[in-house]
Amino acid sequence: MRQPAALAIAFLSGAILAAQGRVNAQFTIEIHDGLFAALVSCLIGMTIMVVIVLAIPARRRALVTVPMAIREGRIRWWFLLSGFAGSCFVASQAIGVPLLGIALFSIVVTGAQVTSSLGVDRIGLGPAGKSPVTGRRVIAALLGLSAVAVAALGRSSVEGAVPLAALLLVLGAGVVMAPQQALNARIAGATHSVSVATAINFTVASFGLLIAVLVVHRGIPADFVDGVPPWLLLGGPIGLIYMGMATLVVRVVGVLLFFLTAVSGQLAASLLVDIVFPVPGTVISWGLVSALCLSLVAVAVGALRR
């Protein structure tokens, strides 16, 4: 895959991630429990992927190559644990957005992502190899973070003090997302299957969230999703699409450039929603337009060849 095609997919994945955040946050509000919402989202995604992998012979053959890839050293066993980072991110979406607001959530998670991405690319954790921390890459990261900050001005819907625990959860989730995407891409490369890597990721994420729910709540009530609108259960399937896209293109563009491009997709999706589906009182913000332009400049700077 060539870089322009990979960037286009990364851009679209950002828009998809914005939709997932909206669904998971509303699910949390509906059932009044972020951990349960995150668990349901991951379990639905896991179920879909496991069925797909087991139903298709080529995917089953790819799955059984995982132990061989570990024995041969093409991947390490702990790469398979990257799904725990996914559980952290889904939980941070479900818990953090209602408490922090989408604006502050976006700033914190994006800042953590781009900072962590510089380190991940520097050590060559992803399949794209090592990328030194150059002035150009730092400028691109700062431009991407500035774009999110500009977009957030005046858009926060949360008043009062910000819960420190929620802030730390979102910050940590953003940090671990970069190595998660790098390791998923390594697994996909070793198995020659994005589906297998995604299935492993969602299975591990579901296991991590299940443990968290059992520890915190000491059980799962059988009727906690009764009466929930069906569209609020789409967080898992949407997450599958995002994860598959991310795993596919990180191998081509690296972790930092992927996240910068995804930020552009998130901002473009926000602007499109304001234009096509405006709520009463919506005004097209020049801050959001400026932020989208800034993010596109960040992608251009990050994509420049050394």
The domain count comes to 1
Low-confidence stretches: none
Spatial extent as radius of gyration? 19 Å
Q: Tell how many strands the DSSP assignment holds.
A: 0
Q: What percentage of the residues does DSSP assign to strands (E)? A: under 5%
Q: Which H/E pattern describes the elements?
A: HHHHHHHHHHH
Our count of helices gives: 11
How would you sum up the major sheet? none
Structural class: mainly alpha
In whole angstroms, the N-to-C terminal distance is 20 Å
Q: Globular, elongated, flat, extended or rod-shaped: what is the shape?
A: globular
Which bin fits the share of residues in helices? over 70%
Output mean pLDDT: 82
Provide a concise account of the structure shown.
This protein has 306 residues and is mainly alpha-helical. The chain has helices at residues 3-31, 34-55, 57-64, 66-71, 83-123, 135-152, 164-191, 194-217, 235-253, 255-276, 286-303. The chain starts with a helix and ends with a helix.
Which descriptors apply to this entry?
mainly alpha; 11 helices; 0% strand; globular; 306 residues
Task: Give the SSE map.
Elements: H1 3-31, H2 34-55, H3 57-64, H4 66-71, H5 83-123, H6 135-152, H7 164-191, H8 194-217, H9 235-253, H10 255-276, H11 286-303
Helix pairs in contact: 1-2, 1-5, 1-9, 1-10, 2-3, 2-5, 2-8, 2-9, 5-6, 5-7, 5-8, 5-10, 6-10, 6-11, 7-8, 7-9, 8-9, 9-10, 10-11
